[in-house]
Design a protein that fits this description.
Layout (H helix, E strand, L loop, with lengths): L1 H5 L4 H8 L2 H12 L12 H11 L8 E4 L8 E5 L8 E6 L5 E3 L6 E6 L8 E11 L4 E13 L2 E9 L7 E4 L4 E2 L5 E3 L5 H14 L6 E6 L15 H4 L10 E4 L2 E3 L18 E4 L12 H15 L5 E3 L10 H4 L6 E8 L10 E3 H18 L2 H7 L4
Parallel strand pairs: 3-12, 3-13, 13-17, 14-17, 15-16
Antiparallel strand pairs: 1-2, 2-12, 4-5, 5-8, 6-7, 6-9, 7-8, 10-11, 11-18, 15-17
């Protein structure tokens, strides 16, 4: 594998020049500055992505196509290559973030209905109520308050604005922070870290003859359930438009500590690199096939020789994401992501590490190029 990657012209030079902390911070800061509850990314984060692509000249680069609302599916799509619907590699991450619906309330207190996997424990956290403004076509702040959890009760207690009603979304009031020395990022992060890594990867990959779909989905967040129909709705509307890929890379948060549905990783901490797992939601979602998992183990070893960190997350719980949609068309699914503490504001603000974001972007590039090499066919072919 290392020989294959070493023969790619200027690969590791480009990775060093294009995948940088400052560029990554500019990208993720642009995404995190715009709240994007499910069903709103067309008016919130998609324009932010488009601005970044335009500023860096990618919208006009040869072989790149961009669609803000691909086939009216509600998902944004960035493609690389000459084939319109036959893409060898899919990179999937979601632009939307967790949010809450409002039920009728009194005296400025409104019961909340999670449009997500609710994880906040006891206490209160600052929040904003958002509504769509038809005149400007944007999401605007209609009020501020707190999300308060007391036992099984989840409510929004307003401090300003109101009255509130249906059509609004309540989200955590969050600002991105980055400690350059430690690398620690705090903010929403789910899934802006992976989206940022994919944008960085696109900067490198467009120099090579690759066929790639980068899907920035909406409505990945949703009510939890043992079945897979209550979330990941946006991506379900996307996958039917493309031929089955050789590989679908699905990138999302990997828990860095134990949560209600499973344990944290063994001997892994944020800041030590990107991670890959065998299964999502204890097998309720998807499972990476044995031959592909071994390929990733070998790839992790090879990348380490060039200073790119990718670790096995064996035993740590990983939630379902867009893998539940990719599995409709291919068994070849890679669950590659980043460690994040306090996903969905469990006990504090979520935190991850910039170093892992950079490693994640470099892994996306190298994995994609390996799929496009002769090695992929030899490694994944069925024996005669």
């Amino acid at each position: 594998m290392l020989g294959v990657l070493d023969r790619v012209p200027h690969l590791f030079t480009r990775l060093a020049q294009e995948v940088t902390e400052d560029r990554a911070h500019r990208y993720i800061a642009a995404l995190e500055s715009v709240p994007a509850p499910s069903q709103t990314v067309q008016w919130t984060r998609v324009p932010a992505v488009e601005r970044l692509l335009g500023e860096d000249g990618l919208l006009d680069a040869p072989g790149i196509e961009w669609a803000r609302n691909f086939e009216r599916s509600g998902n944004a799509v960035l493609t690389l290559g000459v084939e319109s619907r036959a893409k060898r590699v899919w990179l999937l991450a979601h632009l939307d973030q967790i949010s809450y619906l409002l039920d009728p309330g009194t005296d400025g207190t409104y019961p909340l209905v999670p449009l997500c996997f609710h994880m906040q424990r006891e206490g209160r956290r600052p929040a904003v109520a958002l509504g769509h403004d038809l005149a400007s076509g944007t999401l605007t702040v209609r009020g501020r308050g707190d999300i308060v959890v007391d036992g099984s009760s989840i409510v929004f207690q307003a401090r300003e604005g109101g009255p509130f009603g249906p059509g609004l979304r309540v989200v955590y009031d969050s600002q991105l922070e980055w400690n350059r020395e430690s690398g620690v990022l705090t903010g929403y992060l789910d899934d802006s870290v992976a989206c940022t890594a994919m944008l960085l990867a696109a900067r490198v990959l467009h120099h090579y003859p690759v066929e790639v779909l980068i899907g920035f989905t909406d409505e990945e967040e949703g009510a939890p359930g043992d079945a897979n129909q209550s979330f990941g709705r946006g991506g379900r509307r996307l996958v039917r438009f493309y031929e089955p890929p050789d590989l679908a890379i699905v990138a999302d948060v990997h828990e860095s500590e134990a949560m209600i549905r499973g344990p944290g990783p063994r001997d892994l901490l944020p800041g030590e690199g990107a991670v890959f797992a065998e299964r999502s939601s204890s097998g309720r979602g998807t499972v990476t096939p044995p031959h592909l998992y071994v390929f990733q183990q070998e790839m992790a070893w090879a990348l380490a020789q060039r200073g790119i960190h990718l670790h096995e997350n064996w035993g740590g719980y990983v939630s379902r994401s867009e893998d539940i949609n990719a599995t409709i068309v291919t068994p070849n699914i890679a669950l590659i992501g980043f460690l994040c503490s306090n996903r969905h504001y469990a006990t504090d603000r979520p935190s991850a590490n910039m170093r892992d974001l950079l490693d994640l972007a470099r892994v996306f590039v190298c994995y994609t190029l390996l799929v496009h090499s002769d090695l992929w066919g030899r490694a994944t072919a069925v024996g005669q």
